[in-house]
Design brief:
Number of helices: 5
Number of domains: 3
Oligomer: single chain
Shape: flat
Largest sheet: 5 strands, antiparallel
Number of strands: 11
Helix content: 25-40%
Length: 270
Amino acid sequence: MHGKERAIAPITTRFLGLEVQVPDGLDTDAFGTFSREVERRGSPLEAARAKIAAGFRLDPGARFGLASEGSFGPHPYIPYLPVGREIVVLIDRRSGLELVGQFADIRTNFAHAVVDTVEAGRAFGERIGFPAHGLIVTAGLDGAPAPQVALFKAIDGWDALDEAIAQVIGLTGAALVETDMRAHRNPRRMQAIRRATVDLVRRSWSACPACGRPGYVVTERLPGLPCADCGGPTVKIRAEVLTCVGCGHQQESSVLTATADPGSCGDCNP
């Protein structure tokens, strides 16, 4: 519904040889909307799997299913910094193989503002790059978004933005103006979906040395690279753990760097 095939299909067609088609009549909004009319049930991975299952029902002859899902929120470690996470999932209906490409991006334009004038809403739009990046205007009640009271999503220019903000302010005294995170209205998100698709291809080319299953990738990074000065463990990564989700085979691979700069050592640089 949101044109994600423009980001995904060129990559999967070129590097995986897939002929990508969008099933007619597939309502992906039924699995959750960023504008809150429909709450997403479960995790992003579960939502992507549900989309693929719905696509298979509409196209019984398809062997592979592809779906994308994104999530946005505060960075887990850096205060006031938003982060966007994209996954692109591929399922082979014949073999049961599932691969998940991932990409996390701190350059997301995920943001919002509560405004009580049209001018303040315009200022927010200018900061986020409207109209190239879409905006949604929603009513708010008791400090919470209230799309059931008022919701404007098809905002295609400054005049439409002004009108939407003015209408919502007239209803509730203030308007919630936020970035439209739907892919077809968010060029930055389209870029992140492409990166997740590239990661999917990379995973498909990485086979487990034990069973040959695709998707043998890094699942954990272990800190403790020794300090070049005192030899003690630092926060720098000393090794990566590769895991096969099929047979469970694991292998630890040391990083190429033998020692870490003393600046990252808690003893030498407390």
